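Hi,

Apologies if this is the wrong queue. I'm a grad student, and the batch job for AzlC family ABC transporter permease from Fusobacterium hominis produced an output file that my downstream script rejects. I'm not sure whether the problem is my script or the file. Here is the sequence I used:
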Amino acid sequence: MSRCTDAFKVAFPRTVPILAGFLFLGMSYGFIMMEAGFPMIYPIVTSAVVFAGSLEFLFVEILRSPFNPLLIFFLTLMVNARHIFYGLSMLDKFKNTGWKKYFLIFGLCDETFSINCDVKLPPGIDRGWFMLHITWLNYSYWVGGATLGAILSHFVPLRIEGLDFVLTALFLVIFVEQWLSQKNHIPAIVGLLSSIFSFIVFRNILPRPDYFVVPAMIIMLLIFGILRRREKMND
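Support response: The file is valid. Your script probably expects a header line. Output copied below for reference.
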C-alpha cells in the first residue's frame, strides 16, 4: 500500500494543470449535450465509456443524424488514429504492470500519454502505480467535468465559446516543460516539423483541416523508424 500512496503523492501534482483543462472542457461538453436536447445521462455515460475527447463533441451530431455505422467507424478512425501510435510506443512501459495494464490501455489519452511516455520518477517510486494514478485521475477529471456541466446546465446559463483553447495552452506548457527537461530535442523538432508540413499539405485535401494529425503521425513514425535503424547500425 505504501508504494501506491507514494506513487499517488508524485502523480497528483502532475495532473493539476490537466484538472483545470479537463474540468472546463468536460463542462463544455456537458453543456453542449444538454443544449442539444439530450437527457443528462448521455454526457455522463459517453464521457465515461467512450472517453475520446474530441470525438465526444462530434457525438452530438452523430447521435442526431441517421445511423450510419460505416461513417462512424471512419470518422472515429480519422479523429483518434493517433492513439494507435500512442499504444505502440507504450507497449514496453505497460509490461509487468499486471492487472493495471487493462485500465492503462483504456484510459490512455493525449494528456496521460504526454506524462507517462517519458516521465522521470524519483527513486523508489513504482512506475506501474504512478501511471495508474495519472490515468485514473485524468479520467475522473474528464468524467467529473462532463457530469458537472450536465448538472449545472439546468441552473447556470454559461457561454462556452473559447473554452477549447484551454487544452491548447495545456499542451504548450507540457511541451515547454519536456523541452527544458530533455537534452535530446530531435523528437520534439521532428514532431513540430512533421505537424507543420502535414498541416500545410493536407489541410485542403482531407475532409476536415484537423485531420492533418493522422498523416503527421505517419510521417513521425517513418522518421523515427529511420532514426532508430541508424542507431542500431551505429551500435
